[in-house]
Amino acid sequence: MTTVRQRRAGKGTEAAEDQPSEEKNVKPDGKILSDHTGGKLWNILSISVGGIVALSLGLLTSVYVATLHENDLWFSNIKEVEREISFRTECGLYYSYYKQMIQAASIQQGLHGLVYDNKTESVRTINILERMNVYQEVLLSILYRILPIQQYLEPVYFYIYTLFGLQAVYVIALYVTSWLLSGTWLSGLLAACWYITNRTDTTRVEFTIPLRENWALPFFAVQIAAITYLLRTHLQPVQERLTLTAVFIATFLFSLTWQFNQFMMLIQALALFILDCFDMLPTVKVTWLYIIQISALLLVCVLQFFNSMILGSLLISFNASVLIARTIQKNLKKGGLLNRLGKLILHVLLVLCLTLLINKFIKKSLNLESDEHIFKFLKAKFGFGATRDFDANLYLCEEAFGLLPLNTFSRLSDTLLFYVYIFVLFLMTVAAVIVAFQNLSGSNQVQFMEKMEEYTITLKPDAAYNLIHTVLFGCLALSTMRMKYLWTSHMCVFASFGLCSTEVWKLILKCIHLYTSQRTHVIKYSILIITLLYISYKFWPGIMDELSELREFYDPDTVELMNWIKSSTPNTAVFAGSMQLLAGVKLCTGRTLTNHPHYEDKNLRERTKQIYQIYAKRSPEDVYRILRSFGTDYVILEDSICYERRHSRGCRLRDLLDIANGHIMDGLGENEPDLKPSLYPRFCEEIKKNLQPYTIHFTRVFQNKTFHVYKLAKHK
User: Fold this and answer.
1) What is residue 455's predicted lDDT score, i.e. its pLDDT?
2) Of 66, 294, 339, 464, which alpha carbon lies 20 to 30 A from 559's?
3) How does 403-431 read in b/e, with b if 16+ C-beta sit within 10 Å?
4) What is the pLDDT of residue 712?
5) Segment 666-688, tens digit of pLDDT
6) DSSP readout, 377-416?
7) One GO MF term, please (predicted)?
8) Nearest-10 Cα torsion for 216, 217, 222, 224
9) How many Cβ atoms from other residues are within 10 Å of residue 434's Cβ?
10) 201-230 mean pLDDT
């Protein structure tokens, strides 16, 4: 529906390592080595240069994505309505609340309008701050109102520049994480370069600006960097407290800005749990991280007026279960291999059972059903029985929720990222398995420990955490394409760390009996520089071409529809239609909606299914009755949905409705044996014939090549 067209003319790199032991800086007779002061100065210089490079890369990334956005849409030249239409689907819904706060007579009235909103869902008053993660829009709107920038910067630019600015935070966090892991800022440079050159698979911020993940992922990256630092050894108590504070703030901001925060942090909690079970992380620090996750989520729950989806989250149940199970099994990490394996299996089963019991109890007590559609979707996706559930099938049929396409790996391989990632992942996994076996067996034999010295890298808790993190989020990305951005960005960090890590090359060279300290450093930096030169040579011309390509936003049909609604319908009019289109209707016109794309509410899901009967085989009387029950004044029909060809048979919206209604699907192909022919033709097709049963209830008031708008009669 919305398209774009061609625009018309008009070494000190080791500074971040743990503090070296005193023996390296002191002679046997106790005198300070002569180069100690020089080494300190070199470290300070290295950190300064690395910090400047990090800031520069972050700012350049922000400018890069902002330029791509401008070049793709000619955003500075198009009309306000076209700018708003460019915020597609749920992006438009979120941005509409920022616009609403800006246009309110006062901040207090703006907040009151969000807490007592009766325009997002007709005939209902809902609390937007409770239902949706829009505190970022609230904060930005308040800042825009109180800062003296109104005469210099339009509200929309303040909004999008903030999001592009967060990309700088994102890249800097990835850079720092890689630097902390490898000990050299050159590793961070490589991670940032890979992030930029793999932009297609690492971010989509330039064309889905207000999407919740674009707010949340930079804070998630900051949290991972803080956890990586926290898990280092020899931290001073003050450093540890400050780092825990940073972890909490980043976790809180991540949780506040994305409704799927609990599922991402559950995977993170699983990573911590696995590593703790194999004694690869300090238990005290893991406990603090569990508590921080629960505390941040509960604080968000309070700010969201005790949002039911948060209270019933698996994360809270899981973390509470782990802490309870620990108090029950106090001697979990004592004993021989078989003894510990037995205790470990029992511990896992205990945590699993407690998690399910606690979660079931909470949901039963509070009658929570906000996230049931997600579990229905997961059940059907992983083959635990076919389903005719409309909501689950709506997700299953979307490409974004399908398996990760294979061409993703070919794109990642073009930059060498995927090859390096697999190489490092293999080495680290093998070494981690050996170390986990050593920890479980409790072996203290000197010979064995000397042999294990080759695998020192995996004994570092920060490296172990990032290994399990990338494996678990990789599994998530492989199963659900939309979640690949959580994996691919960390893939850049993990691959660059492995390529620039002294320990990795030391391990490889020791295996082939070629290890010397000098040779390790020569190989490490040589391969790093060659990789950077290859990326620059192959992708710099493409980036320059991309930045010089000028296009223009072009969607005349939607612009015409929005202008007609604003000029020809009352401000109080209620509109029904597809979720995606209605988000744009609310943003561009301010009219009341019957449904919208924020799907995390059971009543809204049931309402949406009812509204979508306009694309099913139902009688005009049934459709009219349904629409009027939601106070509908106008209904918008889209040819792109009524005659959809984007999906295959069985996944078109009309097919999902037919299956849910027990009707056979259109077109050639098999149907399940219990499906029956409908007594009525498809509503969205038949209404266009202007037959008498339809004209009694519906009058066409607007039409173009894409949309048909009908006004509902108001019968007594």
Assistant:
1) 41
2) 66
3) ebeeebeebbeebbbbebbeebbebbeeb
4) 96
5) 888 888 888 899 999 999 999 99
6) HHHHHTTS-----HHHHHHHTSGGGSPPPTHHHHHHHHTT
7) mannosyltransferase activity
8) 120
9) 15
10) 96
Query: At a CB cut-off of 8 Å and minimum separation 6, what does 656 contact?
Result: 390, 393, 394, 397
Would you call 684 helix, strand, or coil by DSSP? helix
Integer-rounded Cα radius of gyration of the chain = 29
Yes or no: say if 219 and 174 are a contact pair by the CB < 8 Å rule. no
- pLDDT tens, position by position, 425-461: 999 999 899 888 888 887 544 344 444 444 444 568 9
Bridge partners of residue 26, in order along the sequence: 32
Q: Provide the pairing of β-strand 634-638 with 574-576.
A: parallel
HEC states along 197-231?
Answer: HCHHHHCCCCCCCCCHHHHHHHHHHHHHHHHHHHC
* Largest distance between two CA atoms of the chain: 106
d(CA 288, CA 293): 9
Beta bridge partners, 712, equal 698
Residue type, 534: Y
Type of residue at 35:
D
Contact present, 127 and 117 (Cβ < 8 Å): yes
> 392 near 660, Cβ under 8 Å?
no
> Do the bridges between strand 551-554 and strand 3-6 make them parallel or antiparallel, or are there none, so unpaired?
antiparallel
- The Cα-based distances of 206 to 65, 66, 220, 221, 533 in angstroms read 6, 7, 19, 19, 27
Residue 358's pLDDT band (cuts 50, 70, 90): very high
The token duo for 678 is 């409908």
